[in-house]
Design brief:
about 375 residues, Fic-like fold, Arc Repressor Mutant, subunit A, 2 domains, three-stranded antiparallel beta sheet, two-stranded antiparallel ribbon, 15 helices
């Protein structure tokens, strides 16, 4: 649980350091649920057996998560908007919305790169990711990369009528230091799945930034599973599950703070991870089948299949492309690429999405439909 502090018009909540006291009861149905979830994560980690290259899936899957996580915070951007933005094309929503989603991708990439370089999950890493998340757009005035120096709150117009008031800013450094020690298995090791579940709640409770806490807190789950080796690639994102079960999610966070009911939260978290992992494996399996079936349709064309196969392969990596981008990847001339695209359009594999005669953009239709099912 934690300590309520403050004697003025409001009181703030300071969480106790992790691990919880008394110790967690990881027996019975909860133990079985955690074990089943680890099996699902193992299947997700072997997703490379379903696809010729895991990176084909990772590029768009990361961006789908960025869209969903940002939608929880109120943006209206879609996956297509983000991919158009990355092509320097105008998205169909306000630029600030899609820029926030793009920054979310950048924040994850910063975190993964720093971990590869040997930087552990730490206060420094979290602040660097936050700096990337709020580097421009609406968040630029919310102290990017810095812990807050004022009081914040959740719900209500002031801390006095808030739903929840996180720790005073003067306690953040100590709270984050405690969380950092727990993540690094002090005072004793904690199973990674349990660690990720507890660390997420603790971070959301500390709420160390003026803005972006939810997005960083959700990314922290993926970083922990990746840095501890449970996943070899960052393929697990829980925003869709949290979005669909938003009310229950907030109720359980409150129960942990109010009653110390970590076990019920762990049941919810395990179900979130298991359901999400199974969904990702299913999507990867469908994509693998789609790529194979479309490749066979192109090969059936005989002599005219060569350049179309190259373009098809390039669009597996990025399902929204323009001619100049395809030219860089395939090293084919624009007329050859346009001819190949015409073949793929006639086969119903790709479609042009701008309606323009020049500077056209093409979409791998079924790939985008699979990814957009839940966005």
């Amino acid at each position: 649980m934690g300590t309520v502090t403050g004697s003025g018009p409001f009181q703030a909540f300071v969480p106790d350091p992790l691990p919880p006291v008394p110790p967690l009861d990881l027996t019975g149905t909860l133990r079985q649920s955690l074990d089943d979830t680890l099996v699902a994560l193992g299947r997700l980690d072997s997703v490379s057996t379903l696809l010729p290259d895991t990176r084909l899936f990772l590029y768009t899957y990361v961006r789908k998560e960025a869209v969903l996580s940002s939608q929880i915070e109120g943006t209206q951007s879609s996956l297509s908007d983000l991919l158009l933005f990355e092509l320097d094309e105008a998205p169909g929503v306000p630029m600030d919305d899609v820029r926030e989603v793009s920054n979310h991708v950048a924040a994850l990439e910063v975190g993964l790169q720093r971990i590869k370089e040997g930087l552990p999950i730490s206060s420094r890493l979290i602040r660097e990711m936050h700096g990337a998340l709020l580097r421009d757009g609406r968040g630029a005035s919310k102290q990017p990369g810095e812990f807050r120096r004022t009081q914040n709150w959740i719900g209500g117009r002031t801390p006095a009528d808030a739903v929840f008031v996180p720790p005073p800013w003067s306690r953040i450094a100590d709270c984050i230091a405690d969380l950092e020690r727990f993540v690094h298995n002090q005072p004793h090791p904690t199973p990674t799945l349990v660690k990720a579940a507890l660390a997420h709640v603790q971070f959301e409770t500390i709420h160390p930034f003026l803005d972006g806490n939810g997005r960083i807190g959700r990314l922290l789950i993926t970083l922990l599973l990746t840095s501890d080796g449970v996943l070899s690639e960052p393929l697990l994102y829980l925003s869709l599950y949290f979005k669909r079960n938003r009310q229950r999610y907030y109720e359980l966070l409150d129960k942990v703070r109010r009653d110390g009911d970590w076990e019920e939260w762990l049941e919810f978290f395990a179900d979130a991870v298991r359901t999400t992992a199974m969904g990702a494996v299913d999507t990867a399996r469908q994509l693998g089948g789609l790529f194979k079936a479309d490749r066979e349709r192109i090969q059936a064309l005989g002599r005219g299949a060569g350049s179309a196969l190259q373009v098809h392969e390039a669009m597996q990596a990025r399902p929204l492309r323009n001619v100049s981008g395809l030219q860089k990847v395939t090293r084919r001339s624009p007329p050859t690429i346009l001819k190949a695209l015409d073949v793929l359009v006639k086969l119903g594999i790709v479609r042009e999405v701008t309606g323009r005669r020049r500077n056209r953009v093409f979409e791998y239709r079924r790939y985008m439909e699979l990814l957009n099912r839940d966005v």
